[in-house]
């Protein structure tokens, strides 16, 4: 088995397979240090934690992860909080930075004797329609190489080789939400004990805890704005304004240790299987970060694919592999639907024309419904923390 990519999808898959005695190698374009340092997601759904525990992959998050169950919405109409662990299915998130999870998964894979080739870029997957697919690679020293396997898992993200190798006829469902965020990591403790979503005429602002001294903030910005266009003072002033710090309490300021421009886009590849090549994680579908689903979907798909591969390779039962695409797509579209709803809830058009006013009034009405309707809150909680 060849697994492309050492992100959450590839490493969860490789760990589960190796644990069941299935020989697999992980090919990763980046170096070990880069893979361990990529700060991205942090909110793990209850299902994600269950999957990781079930496979003995939750040691770090059980020791250091922090339960989280409240979000707060702020807008021109005031603020309200939802304790979602008391709503819907009664589940909560565990906050654990993605780079720490990836470091744990890497360590576990290598402890078990797993083989991972860093700085090895997959260039193309060939002959996926045969029982002996090949992965053409560029090795760390620049020389070409070739890996052969029974199956190839494309867990190499949206710009990876798996997507580039799909046959004609693969459908890419795509949506650009027309929204851009400046993603920030501040070396400062969280400013509130909740995820903060601020809807403001100047654009969205978000607050998400990561650790006791690192906090993620998001600021909606103009498309095309360079990550370093605004000074730290301008960023903190903008966050204060949009989060309404004067009314609801100050934000803890600190050095901005990471800035990323995030274009809110979603896509889904269909199908998720092409002969011996399977897509999982961001390679299968990209999801806008509004509802923090990306890393959770990656783990869910890796688990689904791992079970199907184990049935096929150890019990000669191809049923799971044949159903993988349809099953995966069902989960992906459910997450996309909720994420799309969140994106519409948090961003409105900036204009003052009739159409912009219409959309902004709808958005206000949605927030009011979420504030006042218990059944709407139950629906929200189920989808927000579920996957
Ligand atoms: P990854 O983590 O991108 O890993 C893919 C790996 O493949 C490697 N690769 C290749 N290797 C070999 N050959 C090639 N040709 C290759 N091309 C690429 C890459 O180097 C990399 O190591 O994908 P995976 O495993 O599918 O995991 C997906 C998640 O990482 C992603 O969905 C989330 O990080 C998205 N996301 C969030 N998700 C959440 O659930 N909650 C969040 O709060 C959240 N916040 C975020 C996010 C993504 C962000 N970025 C990327 C814009 C915040 C940000 C800023």
Give the helix/strand layout.
Blueprint: E1 2-4, H1 8-19, E2 25-27, H2 32-37, E3 43-44, H3 46-54, H4 59-64, E4 66-68, E5 70-75, E6 78-83, E7 93-95, H5 98-111, E8 115-117, E9 121-126, E10 134-138, E11 144-148, E12 152-154, H6 161-164, E13 171-186, E14 195-198, E15 205-211, E16 214-221, H7 232-242, H8 245-248, E17 256-270, E18 273-274, E19 277-279, E20 285-286, H9 294-315, H10 319-346, H11 354-372, H12 374-385
Parallel strand pairs: 1-2, 1-12, 2-8, 5-14, 12-19
Antiparallel strand pairs: 3-7, 4-7, 5-6, 9-10, 10-11, 13-16, 13-17, 14-15, 15-16, 17-20, 18-19
Helix pairs in contact: 1-5, 1-9, 3-9, 9-10, 11-12
This protein binds 8-demethyl-8-dimethylamino-flavin-adenine-dinucleotide.
β-strand number:
20
**Total number of domains:** 2
Oligomeric state of the chains present here: single chain
Morphology: globular
Task: Strand order, main sheet: write it out.
Answer: 6-5-14-15-16-13-17-20
Major sheet description: 8 strands, mixed
* Cα gyration radius (Å): 21 Å
Low-pLDDT parts are none
What is the architecture of the largest domain at the second tier of CATH? 3-Layer(bba) Sandwich
Helix content: 25-40%
How far do the termini sit from each other? Answer: 27 Å
CATH superfamily of the largest domain: FAD/NAD(P)-binding domain
Summed over residues and divided by their number, the pLDDT gives a mean of: 96
Secondary structure category = alpha+beta
Note the total helix count: 12
Instruction: Please identify the top-level CATH class of the largest domain.
Output: Alpha Beta
CATH T-level topology of the largest domain: FAD/NAD(P)-binding domain
């Amino acid at each position: 088995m060849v697994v492309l990519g050492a992100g959450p999808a590839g490493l969860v898959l490789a760990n589960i397979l190796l644990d069941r005695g299935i020989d697999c190698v992980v090919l990763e374009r980046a170096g070990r240090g880069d893979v361990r340092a990529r700060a991205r997601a942090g909110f793990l759904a209850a299902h994600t934690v269950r999957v990781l525990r079930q496979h003995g992959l939750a040691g770090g998050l059980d020791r250091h992860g922090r339960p989280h169950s409240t979000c707060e919405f702020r807008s021109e109409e005031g603020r309200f909080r939802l304790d979602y662990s008391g709503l819907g299915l009664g589940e909560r998130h565990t906050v654990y930075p993605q780079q720490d999870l990836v470091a744990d998964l890497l360590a576990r894979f290598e402890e078990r004797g797993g083989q991972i080739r860093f700085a090895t870029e997959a260039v193309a997957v060939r002959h996926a329609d045969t029982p002996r697919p090949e992965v053409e690679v560029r090795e760390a020293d620049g020389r070409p190489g070739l890996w052969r396997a029974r199956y190839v898992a494309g867990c190499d993200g949206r710009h990876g080789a798996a997507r580039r190798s799909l046959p004609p006829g693969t459908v890419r469902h795509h949506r650009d939400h027309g929204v851009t965020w400046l993603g920030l990591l501040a070396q400062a403790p969280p400013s509130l004990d909740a995820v903060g979503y601020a809807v403001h005429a100047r654009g969205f602002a978000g607050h998400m805890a990561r650790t006791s001294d690192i906090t993620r903030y998001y600021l909606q910005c103009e498309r095309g704005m360079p990550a370093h266009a605004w000074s730290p003072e301008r960023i903190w002033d903008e966050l204060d304004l949009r989060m309404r710090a004067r009314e609801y309490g100050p934000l803890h300021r600190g050095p901005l240790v990471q800035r990323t421009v995030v274009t809110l886009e979603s896509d889904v590849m269909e199908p998720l299987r092409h002969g011996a090549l399977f897509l999982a994680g961001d390679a299968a579908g990209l999801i806008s970060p509004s509802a923090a689903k990306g890393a959770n979907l990656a783990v869910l798909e890796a688990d689904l694919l791992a079970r199907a591969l184990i049935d096929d390779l150890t019990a000669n039962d191809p049923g799971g592999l044949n159903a993988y695409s349809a099953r995966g797509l069902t989960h992906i579209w459910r997450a996309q639907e909720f994420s799309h709803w969140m994106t519409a809830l948090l961003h409105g058009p900036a204009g003052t024309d009739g159409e912009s006013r219409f959309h902004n009034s709808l958005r206000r009405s949605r927030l009011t419904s979420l504030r006042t309707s218990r059944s709407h809150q139950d629906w929200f909680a189920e989808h927000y923390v579920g996957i």
